Protein 1
Amino acid sequence: MTLSVGPVSDSLAAWFAGRGIPALPSEILAIAVVCALPVLGIVFPIAGVAQYFERKIAGGVQRRKGPMVGANGIVDLVCDLLLFWQPRWKRRAFARSLERAPVLGPVLGLVRRWGLGAIAADGVKMFLKEDMAPEGADKLLFFGSTYVALLGSFLAFAVFPFSQSFHMGDPPVAALYLGAVTGLVAVSILKAGWSSNNKWSHFGGIRAVAMIVSYETPITLSIATVCMWSGTMSLQGIVAAQFRPGILSFTGWNLFQSPFLALVAGVYYVAALAECNRAPFDLSEGESELVGGFHTEYSGLRWGLFFIAEYSDMILVGGIFATLFLGGYQSPFLEDRIVALPPLAEALVHTAIVCAKFLASIGFMMWIRWTLPRFRIDQVMNLAWTKLVPLALLCLFGTALTQLWLSGRVPVAPVVHGRYLSAPVVRPDLLSWAISWIVVGGLLAALVVWAKKEGSPKPAQVRKLLGEEGA
Amino acid sequence: MNLERDGDYITLSMGPHHPATHGVLRLEVTTDGEVITACKPDIGYLHRSIEKIAENLEWYQFVPYTDRVDYVCAMNSNHAWVCAVEALLATGAETKLEIPERAQYIRVLFAELNRISSHMIGLGAMTMDMGAFTPFIHAIGQRELVNDIFEKTCGARLTYNYMCVGGVVRDLHPGAEDEARAFLDGLEKVMREFHALITTNNIFVGRLAGVAPVSAADALSYGLSGPNLRGSGIDFDLRRDKPYGIYDRFRFDVPVGKRFAGDRGALGDGYDRFVCRSLEVQESIRICRQVLDQMPPASGKEDDPVGGWCVSKAAQKALRKPPVGEIYFRCENPRGETGYHLVSDGTKVPYRAKIRTGSFCALSIFEKICPGLMIADLVALIGSFDIVLPEVDR
Amino acid sequence: MSILGWVREIVEGVEATAHGLATTARYLKDNATDTGDGSAMTVDYPVQPARVPDGYRGHLFNAVDDCTLCKQCQRACPIDCISMEGELNENAKFHISRYDIDLSKCIYCGLCTQICPTGSLRMTKGFEIDPRNSVNERGGRYLYRMRPDQTRRRMDTLEVDRLNRITAADPSTLSDDDRAFLSEVEDERGGRFLFARFGMGFYTPEEKAEADRIRAERKRAKEQAAAEAAAKVAADQAALQSDQAHGSAGGNP
């Protein structure tokens, strides 16, 4: 029996075996490398750098510079260590002279100009702060909740497709599995809030659980819609269903297949924002109200792990959005050429593409954060149950209708990428696709225009504030 | 974790270390988890005995302390004190002071500019409490421009100590009037963007509309003043109804709350107060422009008294022997009515100086209107009353 | 809620979000294309210098050459942070021996500068607490006092100028003598106390007693000389008179 998580780990195990390592340990080692690589190699570095980008984007939106930390501290420290016998002013003078060195100088200048030292500063800060638990805290829950938070997102990465063969697993019910494991985050936040022996943290935990559990429903409905459209619950299958040969590969993406799918994408993204506790849904850690919410009492690396869990959740959610609606790891152009590349190159290109997609999604989340104010908990619940769930149900229904209408008009899809699909994939021809968009889009637009006409106008004083005429 | 249970309720202590209480305010909140059943303010964390200190300092020496009574709008606090002392001196025939015209205009200009910058903090901090960090930064940026003008004239950015009994300390710096005009033009543009970004935002209106509306009767009986009073629909502004200084020479409207949030809102809710403050900024811009148009030019003479205390011998003499008596003088500060009740026994040191501030009275209504709110609403409420703790605790 | 109302609420939410995003996108673009002409809201201090205008109420500076020790500033200060002493030096000239402003108490209100009749007390543009950074009126960077036991240390003009020169220079160019002098006036840990001392000529009680003694001695010597001169004049007068008397009595042969 061989242990394997796909062709990549197979080839890696073979390479280890070729180096003289016995069969079983080489397989286990290969699996470990393949499983660790996405998390340690992609998620951790991005999460580490994400705070810097978050602060820079915040500064950009607010007309200021954001973090501008240079590398002086690090350079001083290195000089202190290397030249410890020199007097202090000589060490400092040497450190300053490094700024005029041939290669190092421009690099240090770049670091200073972009403030990249903030990345190192944030990282070091996390390690150096005291790791403590408040008095009366439930130690097991307090220390365990960080790990459960990380678990919540890393478990989901187990089924995430980075490329055709680079994944940790591809169960046929991956979508169902996703919906199941993302709920662990709620558990961890509740644990953190409760075990902190702090009423404000407790509030943060309760709010988070209410919110995450509520938003599970629209997320599951959106995933179900896409699974229904693609005919499979496997994530690799969903990606494969969006394959189109030719230059304009993006026409296969689920976002463009039907207006209902586009709406469902919107529903998914909003619900995903809530799952990540990101603004405007960040009331569980609401900085202005609860200081730190559920993670108030955490410091040092423990807080850092919560923080990494939040960003890895963002990465995961962005990645799932890309997988479900944006064609996953496929390129928007010339996808068939990329598929034809040798396996290693194909894996690298595809991984880079999916990274670009979820980085764009993270950037968008950061952009939204600095734009919108925060909801109140009852407004959040209101949004989930009275707006998102009915909308998702409507879109599910509409997608089913569209699929029924289109299914008589196109042939069954052949085997794609060497993978099989459990049900025929709907591939509408151009005319049917155009008709479905025009009809449904027109109906929705008419509804929107009709609804807006009924609205009450803004009062005169508010129009005066906006500088509008006639106030 | 121990929950102090009294039936089903928890007693929370919101503050004194809290990002949203606008200072060191402690609110003892009894809640069942999210909905508040009782809220008792606990103040005194910023008490500095300013009124007692006033009994040991000479009349002119107290002006830096008035800066600290409300440091967000220090010019207005200065203005209130010096007007009060001048009114006290005016009760005696020999001690009545003649304040130069230009000094009067400069006082109004700076008081209104400070009103604008104070409202920038009031509006901006409120949006920040709601979670929108960007409009706050832009509002603070405008405040910095006002502070730049103040810094060039009087040398300080927060505690100005610029007005003195008899006038102002220094004349405007060269180019001040052009800078002020340029600032006002830029401010109008920035405020339009600010309002388009946040004031009409659905989420923001939803957070404030209908939240703890204050009825007009309650507003009057609890002594609310300023935008808090006008937000509940009562049309009263000291600058127009009981003008002090030269406010009677300027034309401006007084914004009054009118249920601006539409169907979702109620008269006297947080959104009404927010919009009233925003409209007051526009009215202050109008007043500033009128001041700049009407201001008499500087005479260019070296010893032209802008009325500074060190220059004006009359003021020095009068303050050494002020008339005996007491006076209560009211001024319209950005946060409400600031009143100084001065009791003089004829010496160069006041016998008693009592400071009446708007935020203190605004805080007193919390116990009445908080039950039924959620905790997030409480944060919105503190912001909508624009409470600053130095005023409350003095 | 009607269906139309439901649709309207969703549409309004989307509109509000889109409008907000457009505004913040514009802010991002403006910030990215910022030319650094000062229209940015923030200054990257200390890499960029702080924008301090003239007339800024920074640290106080008293040019004691012009100070008359009228004590008006001491009376005007609401915090009572100014104290001063003056004495006669050995040449019987009035001399400020101590002019202290406790900068840890000063609230920078400027009332003392308003009342100063000679204009010797003024506020500078210095605001940085680190004395290595703030520049005083004489171009040096040393505005604050050092150890409490040095409160009575005498520093004449030459030493103050030397201190100004040392602190204005690049630390790596200092000679060992300069470093030794600097270390004399610094705390072991490089700490400094927030006193500002501007008096030019501090007197310890011993030095004061010495100056009094010298002054009294000179006065006594002067009086003695004057008395001797007067006695000499009197003696000459007496001699002249006695000569005249003798002369008139003796007659000329």
Protein 2
Amino acid sequence: MLEIQGITQRFGGVTALEDVSFSIRANEITGVIGPNGAGKTTLFNIISGIYRQTSGTIIFNGKDVSGLPPEQLALRGMVRTFQNVELFTQMTVMENTMVGLHTRSRSGIFSCMLKTPGNRAEEQHIRERALHWLEYTGIADLADMQAGNLAFGKGRMLEIARAMALEPRIILMDEPAAGLNNRETGELASLIRKIRDSGVTVVLVEHDMDLVMDVCDSILVLNLGRWLAEGTPREIQENQAVIAAYLGEG
Amino acid sequence: MKREIFKFLALVVIVAVLPAVFKGGYLMNVLVFVGINSMLAVALNLLLGYAGQISLGQAGFFGLGAYLSGVLTTTYGIDPWLGMIIAAAAVGCIAFLIGFPVLKLKGHYLAMATLGLGIIMYIVFNEAVSSTGGPSGLSGIPNLSVQGYVFDNDVKNYYLIWCATLLIILLSLNLVHSRIGRALRSIHDSEVAARVMGVNARLLKVQIFTLSACISSLAGSFYAHTMSFIAPASFGFNFSVELVTMVIIGGLASIYGSLLGAVLLTLLPELLRAFQDYDIIIYGLLLIVMTMFMPGGLVKGIPAFFSFVRRRLPGGTANNA
């Protein structure tokens, strides 16, 4: 599904990632973990096209997508969420989700200006689909609220609804549980499983170990920008190198 | 949606009856300018208010449209309507080509680049004396006409200009309430998230810059044909700033706000005749005061002001408890 081959990223003299390779299987939840500074977020930014890697290749659905910008990746079915929740704060919850359907609609500037019948039908479709995704994440009652006024946990749900509206093949989530309380984290876990069960591959960067061990089918561990281990949650929990890295003995 | 249609129809009615109220006096001439400035402010708001990209060179595109129409009709004898279309197409092409490098810039750098663009165009209007007439201007531009019906007085021009203005307002309203409008606003709020959602931010910014320039060019053509005379002074840096002021005072990301801003800033100099040499200072002050106390512009500020007053008044509804 997603192959990461020999990714290296240098920022000036600092090497954030060094020759990281691994593959993500379709229809699984893969967790990427590691101590602070392991390069998890950098890896996410590279995969999602926000950074351009110094070297290495990314294969998505059998095609080389290295260096493609995020908008191109979106068209190919890759979407992500952000650690600090990047909502369109001046827009309503509904409108945020409707932007998620951008790649699922075609109307250009002129048909939008002229409000052609085709454009009207498409607009109706966008609205219906957006409402579906708001119901899917359980925030349909907030549809008319301005996104900037949402409570943090609801903002997370909106970000996921907006991302799911693309109907992606793969969704990358950057610390989705950060800032959530226990109940919200529980809801998040079942939502993540529901997303996987609908046939979407999920990749998580996460600090919340309970969540990772609970939902992930497989886990990649990074340490100091290098590949450290990968395996099932049980294997990772018993891996001596991982334990050493987390306890700082490595 | 129904409310949107109602608002627009109310505007159409107001525009239609105003000449009857003013019985054609001097104010009709001012209202023609209000119409032209409204087109320009709406065009700039698409770029500044919706996409969040500043342009301090709008007066240049306005001037380019006016001069192209002027030169094409006077020197080359081309039909004014055809000239208007050629001018808009040419300005659109220029904006599209310039847009790619310029809109890579952000914030102050974008402001500086578009400022430079406006100044270059202003210099061309002044210095290309053989075709533009230079500082002394270009005269003898024909009035527009349809089937022999010539738009040669203020009332006729008023209806002509305002038909165009209303059309541009309607098309812009449609645009901002569409997927393209949402994509523009998403770029404004978070460009990176917009791109992740598949919005081609770079291309869309250039497209909206181009559209904005085309509308400004049309406004310029209308200006040239109603005035019959144009000179570079109308298309300088001051006017670009004035347009930005209209958009911000009216309200960013509000089409009706731009209309309000254009009405206010076009009527204001008429009301402040005595201070005319200081108009740029007054605009500056207005801009500072507005951004401090009404950052959402008049469209958001006026309702907020009234609800504030209502709460403060003795017996106010919200404060009774």
Protein 3
Amino acid sequence: MSERARLLAPLLLVIALAVAWQLPGADWLRLSDPDPGDAERITATLGTLGDEPLVLVGFDADIGTYAEIRPTVRSLIADLLAREARLAFVSLTAEGRALATAELGRLGRGEANPTRLLDLGFIPGAEAGLVDLTRELRVSDTADSAFAREVGVAGIGAFDAVLVIGGNDLGPRSWIEQVAPRIGEIPFLAVTPTVLLPEVQPYLAGGALEAVLATPRAGAAYRESLDLGNLARLTDPIEPRPLPVLIGMLIAVAVLGQALGARAVDSLRAARSREAG
Amino acid sequence: MRRPTLTALVVLVGLLLIADLLVVNTAVAQAAGIVIDAAILVAAGAALAAVAALGARRIADLWRRRGDPVAAVFVLVGMFLMLAAGLRPGSAGTADPAVQWLVAALLVPIGASLFGLLFVTTLAAARRSLAARSREGTVLVAAALLTTILLVPLAGGIGSWMADSAGWLLAGPIGAVFRGLLIGIGLLTAVYAARTLLGMAAADE
């Protein structure tokens, strides 16, 4: 590839994606999972939480993979608020804390009911921090809502469910290993990027995790199933478009396919020349 | 060189934490709590030290005119802005609107953009691994190509079949490889921990 083509290729990619983003949707493309089992499982679990449940949100997404789960995370938070849940956010990684801060700020701008939100901040120490929060949950002095007082008194025992927003640094596995054995039986839910699927699946199959949304397709199926009414303002304003996704994937397929094809042709030529020799 | 004090400390802490998990006892729980608090303080201290070291390194780069001065200035200005927004008198700390704006409008988008470049760099790395004629690289790229094709978001019967196949591929063979790696890492960690607990670590460990 010439130097000019090497420089132009990323630019052309960006232009192609921008054009695809503007084009209308196509019926022959579908982002959501044809089997909505994961979405139904998480909805069913939320339905069992009772009135005004208290949910501890372990927000430890990482910046690299958050774009994959962001629409689903925002929809799930809106869904929980629509079910009148009260959400306490805690982070054990620096990136998770930055993203949680951004999401809490966004919820504030979206005029989410502030009495239903509680920021428990950042606990350093990763796994040690998880063990620590099973012993004591420190509520900020500035948080004076009834929700904050309830959490301050009862600690982690106040919560009806744990929702883990996982990332590469800390995910549901750490929560199940460090927190689940130390507290009573409450449902653990998770939203994770696809890269965590292999380590999450055994916990889901074993029942330690009640429900997981771990692929973009499962997330899209869950978002399609929601009817949030007025709280739809808290979700992403624009759903991910399948056409730019398709174009990106086709470019990846073309690049990888060309390289693999060239490698196969080289191997064949080498084999034939050995035979001829 | 073997350090018996360190080994004894690790043995003590390990046994204490295991006892705290298995036995309901106030004294043990309090002792374990002290250890966990210490671990958290060390982690917090290490994080702060890392940030301070980064700042000191960039200042030294500028002072000695080495490295990339523009990058050093950006890092230092970014650190100063974040510290000023969070620590200035009257600030609400991480809940302060200025901090939230810096995070939501600058930090997260910049970080996400950098990771977005992975699309290009990963493809380039895949091509390089094939150009190096590595057999493992060929298998890796072929698996990536197959998975990517199956994940193409088509509707209809073909799309459902491809989605099911991709799900099976992720949950079955690819998941098995990942889990195998995780189990291997877990076993190695357990063996190393047991060796440390029993004082059997090699001299160079």
Protein 4
Amino acid sequence: MSVTDPALAARVEAWIDSAGGSADEVVRTARAVLDAGFEPASVRIVVDDIALEDTTDMVEAARSLDLHVLSARAESMNDRLAESTAEFLFVVRWGVVTGDLLPKAVGFLDRFPGTDVIYGDSVTDAGLPLLRPMFSPIRLRSNDYLGPVVVARAEVVRAIGGFRSESRRAQVLDLALRAAASGRSVALNPQVLATEDLAPGDFAGTSAAQTAVVARHLADHGVEASIEEVEPFIRRVHYAIVDEPLVSVVIPTRGGSAKIAGTDRVLVVEAIRGIVERSTYQNLEFVVVADAETPDEVVAELEELCGDRLRLVLWDAPFNFSAKMNRGAVAARGEYLLLLNDDVEVVSDDWIETLLGLAQQEGVGIVGAQLYFEDSTVQHAGQVYTGGVAGHAAFGWAGGRDDSIRSMATDHEVSGVTAACAIIARDLYFEVGGFTLALPGNYNDVDLNMKVRATGRSAVFSPWARLYHFESKTRDPRILESDLATLQGRWSRRMQVELYSRMM
Amino acid sequence: MTNAPSTRWPDTRPDARVSSEAELAEERLAFIDRIIGLEEQVRELQAASRLNPTEAVAVEANLAGIKSSLTWRAGRVVTLPIRVLRVVKRRVLG
């Protein structure tokens, strides 16, 4: 244990959260923190003496290393925060920090002075990477994915009011939510900062404390929602729909048929039948952009199914998906456009409420659903962009498969969502010029997502809105060189490294 | 024998045809997209980084990974004579 860089050590303070850990584990964590170059006088073991658990061992452990004990009471933490001269506060929640934690974390904060709170990647004891997503405020409501080490500028923690007594056991989550909400920059430092055990169990009511923090955060920002605990540490936020806006379901079609599960079906008719019969959201209109070749009987069936909610729009030019969708958007009267392919079938009845509730959140631009192939494997759980090209996250995954941060059970930010099923505010669609005509067949949705994100809004995926998408797994994946050139001409530098769905 | 495409339904649904106002709105969409597209193309060509801190560090790590790969190092060895000749040529010819 040695301080190798006194100047650096003077700028930092570490608080080791002992909640849920044994004394031996906390000692292991503390030794690693000291080995990383912290001054012993700047390391505190946070002990929750309000909880019913016996803290004697923990206090003894701290004494054995000549470290201070800090009560987990918010008043004690705020007192310490006020008297500390450190520039950066490291909160170590579990695991073993890397020996080069200080240069990595402080180096990042020094290089990017506009960054206020950071978290990082980690590895398991076996060396498997645990890669965290770029800062994702929607995901944070469902899962505190920030990992074992979170570093904040001390002045920022003071500026946002320090720690709150009502956030006991979930102070870091509360801090990150408040920092982001107050316009501070929370960022992923994509470097390994610690080694940790996988899947810690719930401890001392931490999961419930996190739920309470999220509920308070939503209430503070006027977001009406209910929170369902999916499992410990994983929450589903059910957002209340504001003002029941008209949603225009925009579907391009040529009235084609296909054999699904051994039965011939007219795709657009069955897609709309499913929505009419199953969807619980009622304020809908159906904008069907139909080729002139669409059979009369298909049109008649649509009229019968939708009644006066049908807006039929003629497409009488060569195929151009982008132009067809733009035509539908122009004809639509809804406040929101639900972009939909005609070869889908609704699985979850509340899919529109799920998508719309997210789309109404501040900062969210476009929201997509989880799509399954006919054999119930996953076709789409968000798009991944890497090396200037796009693919689907979790493509081909069997049901039940997930990554280490439970991406298949949490609403979360993604690089993009497929336009096979996506909702977007009509105003935003027009603000970004809709689908580009320069990409008539492929990648037009990637371009749309990038345009939306360029406005500062996010693309969000929800695993709770589920549909079948009968697009063939064996669809010809060839992309025209010209399509790729168009896409990369606009966005190549921003599509090099995937930073949202890093484990999928 | 060919099947002539049916055009009956558009004839019975004149409201499905695109109005001139709608055509203008579609053109406006395309125009906005064209402007955004050109702006983004210019930004792609600018030297200034378009990346946020997380992206910048990730891209640098990616690049460092590529440069430390066996493939990269082997390529550097293979292309060494060419690179030496280029330097010599530049120094000799100015």
